[in-house]
Write a structure and sequence with these properties.
By secondary structure, the chain is mainly alpha-helical. The protein has helices at about 25-30, 30-65, 65-105, 105-140, 150-165, 165-180, 185-205, 215-240, 255-290, 295-310, 310-330, 335-365, 365-370, 375-410, 415-440, 445-465. It has one domain.
Length: about 475
């Protein structure tokens, strides 16, 4: 991938427009392990805290509504992610630009890239995702083999998430932009506040309190969007106050088509990758739904894969963000060797965490499932089986995600797309399709397909990164 202009050079010392005075230069000058850890630990902690909110939703719904509520949240959120990931793709493109410009010390270019992403996100979120998502929700739910009682619980949840999606989008944008600029602590603080509000609102809306009735599964969506709306309002105020590393006070709000095209050029492959992966997730749900114990298997999938496996993916996604930010900044500063070392450090940390979680999945699976109110023997049996497969899969996915972060952060966003199409879509879904033609599927077929897909994704990601073609990628825009 190449563009009309080369990566912006480091600014002249003392230049007032591009002084880089707000940026943490230790990410490009200090020890590489410390640089990765500085971004990784707040990001990982934020993901863990945020993920606990999803677990609490499932626990409350599981105890008050039953396993159909757990399945409904898992199904609806999977569909929601497929659609809104398109907007999130721009934030990936923004992070590439912000990291490179930060490495070069160009404040004006950093703020321009972030503000243009914010502008386009508003338009897409309000004018596209909200109306289309509301009316398309029934058809989207009809695409999977969810039991009728699951679809009944999922529809209002999904519509609320679509219509009021901007708060969550704002949270994603801030996390990606601030981390790419070297500030991982502010997203952590925002994440803690978001999660705390979300938990409080969900306890009220799911189970009811005083004059507020119990909304059940729908209440989980109500709490999420209300917390997101409050967070978005606060964050917009801070962006225009000049106290964050991203500063919108003096930016031009006229569309900058060079920047917008760059956002989509770097971001769309990541967005298409996310769509492909989430479509694959929906298709996996469809295969799970075609088994004899469809509702029980989908509940086990929602709890085991969507929630408990997050103990691996929370940390791995955080490490992916750290690898992306540190690798991108160092490439922008003309230090590609440090970019490569950052990814290796992040991968080693991820493998250590995945090993610990895998041991838990094997040692205490019934205890972990029981926390979500799982009592039906068939759901427990299938869930224990799934966690055994995921104990292995976690080692592969953490490797895949950290190396994906290195590729995306340096601007190679196309390779992860192609890798995901092969490893998360073609191979596992093709395998299940062939098996389904020969005999009825059982849940273990789906669990094995997940492991094979993750192993292939890890292998291809490592091989592609080590080829080093990301070193020569240019931005194609001026600061």
């Amino acid at each position: 991938m190449s563009g009309a202009a080369t990566t912006p050079p480091a600014p002249a010392k003392g230049s007032p427009a591009t002084s880089g005075r707000k940026f943490d230069r230790s990410l490009i000058d200090g020890p590489i392990g410390a640089a990765v850890w500085k971004i990784a630990w707040p990001t990982v902690l934020q993901n863990v805290i945020g993920g606990l909110q999803g677990m609490i939703d499932h626990i409350l719904v599981g105890h008050l509504v039953g396993f159909t509520g757990n399945a409904a949240i898992g199904v609806a959120f999977q569909i929601f992610l497929v659609v809104v990931v398109f907007i999130g793709s721009m934030f990936s493109g923004m992070a590439v630009l912000v990291a490179r410009f930060t490495g070069a010390g160009d404040e004006n270019a950093v703020n321009k890239a972030a503000s243009q992403a914010f502008l386009v996100a508003i338009v897409l979120s309000v004018a596209v995702v909200a109306p289309i998502g509301y009316f398309a929700a029934p058809a989207l739910l009809g695409m999977i083999n969810a039991a009728p009682e699951v679809q009944a619980e999922a529809l209002p949840f999904l519509r609320i998430m679509f219509v009021f999606n901007f708060g969550m989008m704002m949270f994603f944008m801030l996390g990606g932009g601030l981390r790419a600029a070297g500030d991982a602590k502010t997203p952590l603080r925002l994440g803690i506040a978001y999660t705390a509000m979300n938990i409080c609102f969900n306890i009220v809306f799911i189970r009811g309190l005083g004059p507020i009735p119990a909304f059940g599964t729908k209440g989980a969506a109500m709490g999420t969007v209300l917390a997101g709306g409050i967070l978005a309002t606060y964050s917009v105020r801070k962006l225009f106050s000049g106290t964050w590393v991203l500063n919108f006070r003096h930016v031009s709000w006229k569309p900058d088509w060079d920047i917008i095209r760059a956002l989509f050029r770097f971001g769309l492959p990541t967005g298409l990758q996310g769509i492909a992966m989430n479509v694959a997730g929906v298709m996996l749900l469809r295969f799970v739904g075609s088994t004899a114990s469809s509702a029980e298997a989908q509940a086990a999938y929602a709890i085991g894969y969507t929630e408990l496996f997050s103990l691996v993916t929370w940390t791995s996604v955080g490490l992916m963000g750290a690898a992306s930010a540190v690798a991108g900044q160092n490439l922008g500063a003309g230090k590609p060797e440090r970019s490569g070392e950052a990814v290796k450090v992040a991968s080693r940390i991820g493998l250590g965490i995945a090993t610990i979680v895998g041991i838990m999945f094997l040692a205490i699976p019934e205890t972990l499932l029981g926390a979500f109110g799982v009592a039906r023997p068939e759901v427990v049996r299938i869930g224990v089986q799934l966690l055994a497969y995921l104990s292995v899969s976690g080692l592969f996915i953490t490797t895949a995600l950290t190396y994906t972060g290195g590729l995306q952060g340096t601007g190679d966003t196309k390779s992860p797309l192609y890798i995901s199409l092969i490893s998360q879509f073609a191979v596992p879904l093709g395998m299940l399709s062939v098996l389904q033609l020969t005999r009825p599927l059982v849940p273990a077929d789906v669990w094995l397909a997940i492991v094979i897909g993750h192993a292939l994704r890890a292998t291809l990601s490592v091989v592609r990164f080590k080829q080093g073609k990301w070193r020569s990628i240019t931005l194609g825009v001026k600061g």
